Amino acid sequence: MKFRRRTILFLILAIIIFAIGYGLVPKPKFVETAEVSQGYMKVAIYEDGKTRVMNRYVISVPVAGFTPRIKFDVGDSVSKGQMITELEPLRSNVLDPRSRAEANARIAAAEAKLRAAMENTQVAKVSDEFAKKELERARLLFEDLLITEEDLDEVETESRQAEATLRSFEFAVDVARHEKSAALTALEFSAANELNSYEEKVIIKSPINGRILKINHESEGVVREGQALIEIGDLQALEIVTDVLSADAVRITSGTPVLIERWGGEKPLKGHVRVVEPVGFTKISALGVEEQRVLVISDIVSPPEKWEQLGDGYRVEVSFIIWEDESVLQIPTSAIFRLDDEWAIFVISKKKAQIRMVKVGYINGMTAQIVSGIAKGDTVIIHPDSSIKDGSRVRFLNKI
C-alpha cells in the first residue's frame, strides 16, 4: 500500500513538473508567409485621364448676320467642304410711329429737293442755250472784225461756265433722286415687309472630314461677328490627357510606354507619351490639399478599329510604365523592413525565423525587387511584428 501510494505521488509530481516545464517553453508564433517568386514586374504611375480630340475646329461667324436653324445633331458626320449653314443679312428694324413719321418727312424733303434741283436745271439749261447763241453771234462778229479777240474769249468763257453750271445742276438732280430712293427704303424694307429670300448669303462650310462635337448656336437667330456656331473634330485622332503630380512627372519622358485601362473595352490599349508639358498648375485634391500637377499628353498606338467607340472627353485609367522586366526575383513589400539603414526580412528555416539582410531594387507598392540576399523558393514572413525575433519559433497561419 505504501509503495502504491508513493508511486501515485511520484506520478502526480512528475505531471506537475512536466506541466510547469511545458508552460515555460516559448510557444511558436503564428505568422503569415509568402514564397519568393520570380516573374514579370513593373513600376508604373497610375492616374485617371480623359480622351481629347487632337485637332478641334471651332467654326465661328465671319460677319454679323442671321442664321437659320442648324439641321445637324451632335455626332453627325460631315465631309470637307460640306455646307453647315447659311449666314443671311441682318433683318430690318420695325418702324414705330415716330420712326415712320420721320421716314415720311425725309421722303417729302427729298422730293422737294428733287423738284428744286430740277427747276435749277431748267434755269441752267436756258442760260446755257443763251450762252451758246451769244457765242455764235460773237464768232460771226469776230470774222467781220467788229469785235476783238479778247471779246470773243470772254463770250466763250461765259458759254463754258453756263454749260458747267447745267451739268452741275443735272448731277444735283441725280443726287436728289438717290436721296429720295434712300428715304423710301426705310419704309420699303421695314421688318413688317421683310423679304423671304436674299441675294447675298455667306455659306459656312466644314473645313475637315469629321464629326460634330458641339453645337453652340442651334436655333435660328441673330449672331454677332466672331460668335462660335459649331465644333468639329476627327475622332480617329484622339489623345489622352492626364494630370500627374509634378514629382511623378519628372520620371516620365517622351516615349514612355502607356497602358490605357478601364476605358470600356475588354483589353487594355497601348500608347506612348508624346509630350510632358513644361508648365505645372495648382489643383485642389479631394482631401482639400493643394497639389502641383503637370499635364502629360499620350498617343494611342493600338489599331483604331479596337477603340472606335471612344469619343471626346471619355474617362480612362492610365498607367505610365517607368520600368519593367520579365524575370525579376520579388517578394511582397509587406515582408521588408528597415534595420540599421538597410533592408531586412525574416526567412523561415526549420520552423524558426531567421533575420536576413537583403538588397532591394525597384518597389511598385505591392512587390519589391530583391537583388541579393535570398533565393527563389525561400519562405518569408509578411507583416512581421515586434514580437518576432531572430530565432523565434513560428507556425504557418497561411501562405501566399
Describe this structure in words.
The structure is a single chain. The protein has helices spanning 2-24, 97-143, 149-188, 246-249; strands at residues 29-35, 37-53, 56-60, 65-67, 77-78, 83-87, 202-205, 210-215, 221-223, 228-233, 238-245, 257-261, 269-284, 290-300, 315-332, 337-339, 342-349, 352-363, 367-372, 379-382, 394-399. By secondary structure, it is an alpha+beta fold. The chain folds into four domains: 26-41 and 327-399, conserved putative lor/sdh protein from methanococcus maripaludis s2 fold; 44-53 and 235-325, Elongation Factor Tu (Ef-tu), domain 3, CATH 2.40.30.170; 61-91 and 198-229, OB fold (Dihydrolipoamide Acetyltransferase, E2P) (Beta Barrel), CATH 2.40.50; 97-193. The strands form five sheets. It has a six-stranded antiparallel beta barrel. The protein has a four-stranded antiparallel sheet with strand order 3-10-8-5, with no helix packed on it. A hairpin with a 2-residue loop joins strand 16 and strand 17 (342-349). Helix 2 runs antiparallel to helix 3. The protein is rod-shaped.
SSE pattern, N- to C-terminal: HEEEEEEHHEEEEEHEEEEEEEEEE
N-end to C-end Cα span: 60 Å
CATH top-level class of the largest domain: Mainly Beta
Tally of separate domains: 4
Strand order, biggest sheet? 2-11-14-13-12-15
Main sheet specs: 6 strands, antiparallel, barrel
Specify the structural class. Answer: alpha+beta
**Average pLDDT level:** 84
CATH architecture of the largest domain, by name, is Beta Barrel
Question: β content, as a range?
Answer: 35-45%
Tally of DSSP β-strands? 21
Percentage of residues assigned to helices: 25-40%
List the total number of helices. Answer: 4
